[in-house]
Amino acid sequence: xxxxxxxxxxxxxxxxxxxxxxxxxxxxxxxxxxxxxxxxxxxxxxxxxxxxxxxxxxxxxxxxxxxxxxxxxxxxxxxxxxxxxxxxxxxxxxxxxxxxxxxxxxxxxxxxxxxxxxxxxxxxxxxxxx
Length: 130
Prior knowledge:
It holds the Pfam family KH_NucS_shadow. By secondary structure, the protein is mainly α. It has one domain (33-124). It is built from 7 helices and 3 strands; from the N terminus they run αααβααββαα. The chain has helices at residues 7-15, 20-30, 32-47, 62-73, 75-85, 108-114, 116-121; strands spanning 52-55, 88-92, 96-100. The chain has a 3-stranded antiparallel β-sheet with strand order 1-3-2, with helices on both faces. α2 packs across α5 (75-85). The model has no long low-confidence stretch (mean pLDDT 89).
């Protein structure tokens, strides 16, 4: 299961649309490690003048890695996080998270990060099973 959904929120979803704030709160509560990593990368981006910031720290446990995978593999979760933080997220190697300023999405740094070449250059033997 990707998210732990409170009964009240599930009831609301069954009746109609749920707003982003409620959805993002559910993500924050359900995936605290993923939230922490993404928050840290966005804070690094906000603190600098660069087009993007990235974190390549391997998660401390498999459940934590699973949180990152669930957060960034789900279009709905990733989209909610991107709207909440005002960034474009990118993901490599089951743990390398990048946050890009929206204005940088068509730029060279973003294209390099999400390219097949970028993915290949970020491989290592210890990541084979991640």
